[in-house]
Amino acid sequence: MERENHTDIQKLFETVVDGDYCIGCGACAAVKESPIQMKLDGYGKFTATIAPSASQQLLDSSVQAVCPFSNHSLNEDQLGQELFSHNCQRHDRIGYHLSTYAGFVSEDGFRDRGSSGGMGTWIVSELMQQGLVDGVIHVHQRQPDADDSRLFHYQLSTTLEQVRSGAKSRYYPIELSGVMQLVRDRPGRYAIVGIPCFIKAVRLLMRQEPLLAERIVFCVGLVCGHLKSTQFAAMFAWQCGITPDNLRAIDFRKKLPGLNANQYGVEIVGVQDGQVVTHVRPVPELYGRDWGLGFFKYKACDYCDDVVAETADVVVGDAWLPQYVQDSQGTNVLVVRHPVIQDLVELGMAADRLQLDRIDADEVAKSQSSGFAHRREGLAYRLYLVDRQKQWRPLKRVQASAKHLSRNLQKRHVLRVEMATESHLAFKAAIATGTFSVFVEKMDAIVQRYRVVSQGSRWKRLAGKVKGKVQQLVSQFRKETA
Ligand SMILES: Cc1cc2nc3c(=O)[nH]c(=O)nc-3n(C[C@H](O)[C@H](O)[C@H](O)COP(=O)(O)OP(=O)(O)OC[C@H]3O[C@@H](n4cnc5c(N)ncnc54)[C@H](O)[C@@H]3O)c2cc1C
Ligand code: SF4
Ligand code: SF4
Domain spanning 76-228+296-372: which CATH class is it, in words? Predict the structure, then answer.
């Protein structure tokens, strides 16, 4: 369908979608009678498209208000204030919070089955067990078939077994439109689990549609570094000898006893020489595992400023802190914003069902220091670059700026964007030639430049520290000898 008039939908497409700022959440497709459909693009990323049969009348649907990347929707500060300012304190990075913890679940194998300390699944199980919700909307594995190759999708769990079987992190594209329709069709009270921009989209949908607000009673957030395309899973599988079209299942976070929590493994199931086989490989052995390089990242993630799901009632992440990272079983950080969830957590601690330390909001922020550096200082510079090109971009809570970064760090951020962009193209080229090394060769050309620049930044930081220390010693010496 041609996009002729300046309807709300047309504006969404001219800005967010055409600018490649769409994170593929599916909120615009979830609006009642929306003509938008979610489709995986040629690079394995969900993106909004207009259904070919859409009528002009439907094209008038109001969609910008529910899009987390539109400039016509509320931002995380505005939503957070509306939801939590009456009883929570505010931290400049963590947002509103009632209480903050680090630890894990000590009962019933939640930690074994989870990606980290198992708190993500424990919280939603507990909400169900206490009769506070009738179901949990979260991400499950699915069997890929000839019509639909996806390995994961959002699904409603209505039993505790189903809830528990949905544990683990899925670094994979998912979208919300199907499950939002399910919430409309099926009366009940639900909890939903999601990465920050998805929870923001759900909050925006709930503001627009009272039925959704009535039925979605808890939003559980996951801390987020960035989202990956389907090619991330395929890249790991290919290195294990399973070609992308033969991949059947993946566990991105297989715990490996004796290693640090961040040195987890990946478990791949696929067809090799006509047999279904399973491979487990430590992620540090695999090419492209470094999240800092941003392989297969959606462009939207480089224009996001919410690391800790600031609009969620509770958020869980990994405690990437020196005192916790050595435990291969995994440890969560936890930010609680809803009093009912705080009560569940405190009761769980008192009954020794949860092993949690009280930590402060600064420590939570420290556990995600790279994520914050990329989405505060790094984001300010990326916004500056887009503004210099006089292109449309989403409004952010961070101001565009270049002055705060050294030339070296600026180069580093430019190379990160280049690596993410090139990874999508290079992997497609590798698939077209049937040769994984094509991907490695193309990526290495940028990765090597990035490593050199990063090394430069590191030396400069080290030299700065040494200089500071020397100055400190000299002034101390002068004071002592004066
Ligand atoms: C794309 C992505 C990026 C992440 N980046 C970071 C990061 O930078 N730093 C950090 O500390 N943590 C990050 N996390 C969170 C981390 O991987 C763990 O999910 C989190 O620590 C919870 O672990 P757990 O053991 O408590 O949860 P589990 O008990 O394993 O439960 C996880 C819950 O999340 C649901 N879920 C899994 N994947 C998705 C998804 N894509 N969308 C919605 N729901 C999902 C599951 O269905 C389950 O309900 C990320 C997660 C995702 C999905
Ligand atoms: S980010 Fe979400 S709401 Fe916005 S255009 Fe993409 S799918 Fe639609
Ligand atoms: S980095 Fe931001 S935009 Fe990207 S998936 Fe995470 S929350 Fe969404």
Answer: alpha beta
